[in-house]
Amino acid sequence: MVVVANVRLLAVLVAVVVIAGVAVLAYTTLGSITVENPYYVETSRAIAVYMKIHNGKLREVCLVKAELAEPGMAMVEIHETVMEGGIHRMRPVERLCIPPRGTLEMKPGGYHIMIMGDN
């Protein structure tokens, strides 16, 4: 698979994170949910997006979906990296919950958003 050229730019600029049904643009704050230091790493096959998401609310919130503002041929999934048989593998995750006043750190070797596509 080859990532579409225009998806590279969209990876950080318009990656939209849906938290508990509320869309949050990667560089903004909505209520007491904040996104800090979003960045991406591009490979020949995909783009991995990392960030910290802070939950300032008094209740748990869950990251349930990630999508591009302008979807096209790219597929976007929430992933985690796991060790299986001595090999790092990625697998999709349905939801990531952030405890009240907690932080979810998406970083290499852990949770991240994968943008994959072909052209």
Keywords for this entry:
119 residues; mainly beta; Immunoglobulin-like; four-stranded antiparallel sheet; 1 helix; 11 strands; disordered N terminus
Protein topology:
Layout: H1 5-13, E1 15-19, E2 22-25, E3 29-30, E4 33-42, E5 46-55, E6 61-68, E7 74-84, E8 87-92, E9 96-98, E10 103-106, E11 111-117
What percentage of residues falls in helices of 4 or more residues? under 10%
- As a whole number of angstroms, the C-alpha radius of gyration is 14 Å
Largest sheet entry: 7 strands, antiparallel
Average pLDDT across residues?
Answer: 75
Number of strands: 11
Amount of beta strand? over 45%
Number of domains: 1
Report how far apart the termini are.
8 Å
Order of helices and strands: HEEEEEEEEEEE
The CATH topology assignment is: Immunoglobulin-like
Q: Count of helices?
A: 1
| Anisotropy-based shape | globular
Which CATH architecture? Sandwich
Low-confidence stretches: 1-30
| Level-1 CATH class name | Mainly Beta
Structural class: mainly beta
Report on the architecture of this protein.
The chain is globular. Residues 1-30 have low confidence and may be disordered. With 119 residues, it is mainly beta. It has one domain: Immunoglobulin-like. Helix content is 8%, strand content 59%. Strands 3, 4, 5, 7, 8, 10 and 11 form a seven-stranded antiparallel sheet that branches.
Question: Quick recap of the structure?
Answer:
Strands 3, 4, 5, 7, 8, 10 and 11 form a seven-stranded antiparallel sheet that branches. It is built from one helix and eleven strands; from the N terminus they run αβββββββββββ. 8% of the residues lie in helices and 59% in strands.
